[in-house]
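Usage

Read records sequentially. Each one opens with the input sequence:
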Amino acid sequence: MELRQLRTFEAVVRHGTVTDAANVLDQAPSTVSEQIRHLERSLGVALFERTARGMRPTEQGEVLLRWSRSILDQAEQARREVTGRGRAVRLGALETIVATYVPRVLARVAGRRPDITVDVRSATSRDTLLAEVTAGQLEAALLLDTGDALGDLGFPLPAAPLTFLDLDPVPLVLVAAPDHRLRDRHHLGPQDLTGEKLLVNVPNCSFRMAADKLLGPGPQRIQAGGVAVMRAWVEQGLGISLLPRFAVSAALESGTLSGLDFAAPDLSLRLIWRSDREDLPGLRDVLYAAGA
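and closes with the structure output:
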């Protein structure tokens, strides 16, 4: 049983087909298939059920999956200690918060544990972060959420023992053009926004999900794009938008945007990880430092 075979095995489990796993691994499908066959022969069991819809791990495959991540983690840690590179923790984060919030987390860790390296990997999709934490490709990830339970914002969770720690509030503000009709109205509620054009991103965007929960069905959704696009469109009077304060504070100060008097609860900057991997070298130290 070789480490490269275990990495290939995990990729096939994660992506469901040899072709998709080969694309991710930058290998030929025939190479992936051969590694899986070698692994099965060495163990004397079938690790996958081959179906027309893809490959699913057998009961024995599920057992190996639980072991493979631990083996690969230990091999990586051994390599780092032997080569003198020290401990490293892979941290994923949404692109929207990498520039603003991740440096704060890194500064906390560096101040308390300068011996630990944090490798930051940005992602455009929350689903990608959740999948990579579940699969052990990331030790932890930073995303946006709300409420007392993981996923209260409205996104689905993978079948994994995920837990979390809330680090910082992420304030939201409902913004409009300076001459908007609701600029001088006080204590706005969802009923006051009926018929307004609400600029949004894709349905799984954190700020879109927050808007859907807070503003109700009254506003007309217009899909614009990312935060920068929505901000620019609001400035040009094309609609209103619920955006993070860090992305619009300069525009609010300069007067190119107005903040409407709508009480929007903060989102939470949430650090997530697998509870069954807390004993990985360096991870618990990073969790303590980040939450300090």
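Summary fields computed downstream for this record:
- The first helix runs from residue 3 to 15.
- The chain has a mean pLDDT of 90.
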